[in-house]
Amino acid sequence: MTDEASTPEGVSSRVAEFVCGLAEYGGLTREQAYRLRLATDEIATNVLQHGYRGPGLLDLCGGVEPDRVWVRTEDEAPPFDPRDHDPGPLLAQDPITRAAGGLGLVLALESLDEFEYERVGDRNRITMAVRRGRNGGGGGPGHGAGGRAHG
C-alpha cells in the first residue's frame, strides 16, 4: 500500500484496516494483532508529524511467515531510527504537569517482538514483527500482502 496522507487520522484508519487484515490472515490472537497495529500506527503517525511535518508518501507491506507476522514501512522523510529516541527526560518529569504525548514510540517498540531500522538509499525502512503462536494458522509460510493505494 502506498499512501499519500495529509493527516495522521487519515493514515491511521488505513493502517488499522491493513494490519487487522494481515493479522487475521496470519492467525494472530487479538492481543498480538493489537500490538502490531499499535506499533504500525505509531510509526506511521510519527512519519507524518515529525518526519514530513505534513503530507507525505508512506509505503506499507507485510507478510506471514511460519513463526511471525511482519509489517514494513518505508518513507522518504529525513533519517530517523526510533530506537534513538530517548524518553528519559520526559519520564523524569512529573506526569501531572508534563505535556501530553512523547511516549508513543516507547509503547510501540515495547509492544513488538522484533524491530529493525535501516536507511536504504534516501528511505527509512522499518520492519516490525510479532511472533505467531504454535497454533498460528492463517495464511501459511511466506505469504505477503501489500499493494498500491492513493489516499
From TrEMBL:
Pfam families: HATPase_c_2. Residues 7-129 form the Histidine kinase/HSP90-like ATPase domain. Residues 131-151 are annotated as: Disordered. The keyword Ubl conjugation does not apply. Gene3D superfamilies: Histidine kinase-like ATPase, C-terminal domain. Keywords: Kinase, Serine/threonine-protein kinase, Transferase. This is Serine/threonine-protein kinase RsbW. It comes from the Bacteria. The keyword Transmembrane does not apply. GO terms for molecular function: protein serine/threonine kinase activity.
